[in-house]
Specification:
Radius of gyration: 30 Å
Mean pLDDT: 86
Number of strands: 13
């Protein structure tokens, strides 16, 4: 788990509606909510640059950091939810959860593939990663930034499963061991479909007579 600087939070008061949140953003901060650890939820304002730095770090949203709330006691916390503005990509809101360092928790950790499979280099296959994050359980201080697995020995049609991932004693996987992580496959060539010539319109033999008026 990477160390990071403490995050300072300012308490928010008054109404917590869209207009209030907009005023927080105009002031150069982002609205947030802190909850967990058996304590009441509090509304705070945070520096978006600090939160963005955490989200873009190696451990990302799994980063455990010191949260210093104005007028309160410091606590360990992590980012559990965040929202971006869809067009400009600016942070709009985040949820923080207080963390008890002595209690195991569930997290999703990225799976990183290392090496170029033999089936890709020698047999023209392609590496297809099916599981990009794996859910595991561990103490907050033992959360890995990512799980690495070597795929260089994979032949064509070979596969890697959760059972092949490194199993450290500090965490346990919460997905079935036979879950496929990645495999080397090949793109099947599809035979071209010949165009079917358009059917010619049927021609009725003989001249078509105009309808005669009914005789009175």
């Amino acid at each position: 788990m990477a160390n990071t600087e403490a995050v300072k939070a300012t308490l928010r008061s008054g109404k917590f509606n869209k207009n209030a949140a907009r005023r927080v953003r105009v002031a150069g901060q982002i609205p947030a909510v802190v909850y967990g650890a058996g304590q009441e939820s509090v509304a705070v304002a945070l520096d978006p640059k600090v939160i963005t730095k955490i989200l873009h770090s190696e451990s990302g949203h799994n980063t455990i950091f010191d949260l210093d709330v104005e007028g309160g006691t410091a606590a360990k916390a992590m980012i559990v939810d965040w929202q971006y503005e869809p067009i400009k990509g600016k942070l709009l809101h985040v949820d923080l959860k207080r963390i008890a360092m002595d209690k195991a928790m569930r997290v999703s950790v990225p799976v990183m593939l290392e090496g170029v499979p033999t089936g890709v280099k020698n047999s023209g296959g392609i590496l297809d990663q099916l599981l990009r994050e794996v859910e595991l359980e561990c103490l907050p201080g033992d959360i890995p930034s990512h799980i690495d697995v070597d795929v260089s020995g994979l032949e064509l049609h070979g596969s890697i499963h959760v059972s092949d991932l490194p199993h450290a004693g500090k965490y346990k996987f919460l997905v079935p061991e036979d879950t496929m992580v990645a495999h080397v496959t090949i793109i099947k060539e599809v035979a071209p479909v010949e165009a079917t010539p358009a059917a010619e319109p049927e021609v009725t033999k003989g001249a078509t007579k105009a309808a005669e008026p009914a005789k009175k």
